[in-house]
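Slide 14.
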Amino acid sequence: MRQFKDNAGRTWTIAVNVDSIKRVKALVKDDDGDPVNLLAAVEGRLLEKLVESPILLCDVVYALCKPDADTLKVSDEDFGRAMAGEAIDGATAALLEDLSDFFPASKRPMLQTAVKKLAQLQQIALDEAVKRLESPILEQRLRQTIANDLFGDLPALSVSTQAP
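Slide 15: predicted structure.
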């Protein structure tokens, strides 16, 4: 079991077990309308979906925490309102760690490797995005686009230097 805090200061416990996996499958559908099967995490694609979509991730986490949420009378909407920034990072870490612990020792290394590889690829993408944003070429292109958008349809102005 792993814990994380939401932005309302509540501490939530994630426990991945057979019961909670069945609950997620019954309550959560992905963007294609398919039930989310946490057992598919060892294949890797589910991990990508969860990391790419904080909404899907929060839906899964809420389903995992639903018994506690019901006790505390925290609705799905209330839970979602308290999930942003660091809370999502904490929930992601808690989910991935507990999910990894769920699988038998023979499958655990594969899931741990997939999680590490996904983190590496995310860091590469982030580094590349920062590099492009800091590039002087981007600023030059933006200035050119703005100038074209603002003045592209106007004829060139000539300024007369002679007195009338």
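Speaker note: The helical segments are 18-27, 45-52, 54-72, 76-81, 86-102, 108-134, 136-151.
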